[in-house]
Task: structure prediction
Amino acid sequence: MRVLVTGGNAGIGYFAAEQLASAGAEVVIGSRDPAKAETAAAAIRSQVAGARITHVPLDLADLPSLEAVDPGELDAVVCNAGVMLDHPPRRETAAGHELMFGTNHLGHFALVARLMPRLAPDARIVTTGSFAAKSASLDFADLQSERDYQPKRAYERSKLAQMLFAVELDRRLREAGSKRLSVVAHPGGALDSLTPSRPPVHVRTGGQWLRGAPARALLHGKDAGARPAVRAVLGPDVTGGQLWGPRVFGLRGRPRLEERWANLTDAAAERLWAESVALTGVDPLG
Result:
């Protein structure tokens, strides 16, 4: 099995790549920084004997550059990379899209369109959403927060958009009679302080561990947060349109199948698809 993990050089993406490599998959790390990708690959090799890791340059904030992305034939894609801004000012991609919406959603939308000819007939497209999106809703009159920019809300909406894309992709794949699966996963509450060290990719000090220890009752580390996405890639019982997340209140623990959230509606997903085609100029199934 050959799997592309976007943002596989750090955070949840790194641990997804490590866990997939441990399961015997060949992993392609999609990253805009070759040095960070190689550092991550070395860290994975130190944990997984014989790990097969390669890198493909990937900048989701630069839509034209995605035309040149060529990771080779793939059995799965984990759409994981993302940007999260904590405070104003509002920032934009080179194409003029709000940075989080443009990177997290539109970048992956365009990337999947680019990768379709490279995907195996039974490939899996796994989208990493966020528990933070569970209470979010899209404002189609202000999709890119031009009139009212609040960073936290803009991030939540960008992750909801990713998840809605995955829902609509699944519906369209089934409608076309395809055997490819589009699946959604989310990491729950994943903290750096609860994440094991993988130097130099991630180094957790003893003080950080002690400060994070009380949160273990409800949250977990990014290694555990990666498991729902890995489960969605590898699970023999996985089907299209499913949502996988942690089993304890959706925040921590082993992966489990969840009911689709109330805001992941077919109507919103279909409308977002049309808007995304207009904004990117590509259609993943067009």
